[in-house]
Amino acid sequence: MTIFHISPDELELTAIRSQGPGGQNVNKVSSAIQLRFDVLASSLPEDLKLRLLALRDHRLTKGGVVVIKSQVHRSQDMNRMAAMLRLHDLLALAAAVQKPRKATRPTRSSQIKRVNSKVKRGQTKALRGRVAESV
User: Fold this and answer.
1) In terms of C-beta distances under 8 Å and separation of at least 24 residues, what long-range contacts does 39-42 make, across chains too?
2) Which fold has domain 8-95?
């Protein structure tokens, strides 16, 4: 696995108000965190940047900025850590290189077995037809 380091000045962390239930506390405390990370302006390796931008993820904007909102916890510090962990998980997903798939073909015997089973099934169904009346 590739190890990457993101300096804190590449991250833009903003405290915002959390959504959902919570009574008066949710209306007066900015405990949710919005993390913004500009992929193109970052110090990540170029191949990792390209793989990250190629991901089809709803958190990635057209301008190449990753936007992660964390509002799971009641404290701002816990939400900040959760947002950073989710960014790290996204980067780890992009860093994993998939090995290319090798095309394979079915064996001759498996092809014959498949055709024979289809023929047998067809014969069984053909026998289900109406019985002709003999006079």
Assistant:
1) 39/64, 39/65, 39/66, 40/64, 41/10, 42/6, 42/10
2) Double Stranded RNA Binding Domain (3.30.160)
Amino acid in position 53: L
* Separation of alpha carbons 50 and 134, rounded Å: 76
Whole-number pLDDT of residue 35: 92
CB 115 within 8 A of CB 77: no
The string of pLDDT tens digits covering residues 66-79 is 999 998 888 889 99
State yes or no: pLDDT of 20 exceeds 90. no
**pTM, entire model:** 0.66
**Please, which contacts does 2-8 make with residues 24 or more away whose CB atoms are closer than 8 Å?**
2/45, 2/48, 2/95, 4/44, 4/45, 4/48, 4/91, 4/95, 5/43, 6/37, 6/42, 6/43, 6/44, 6/87, 6/91, 7/43
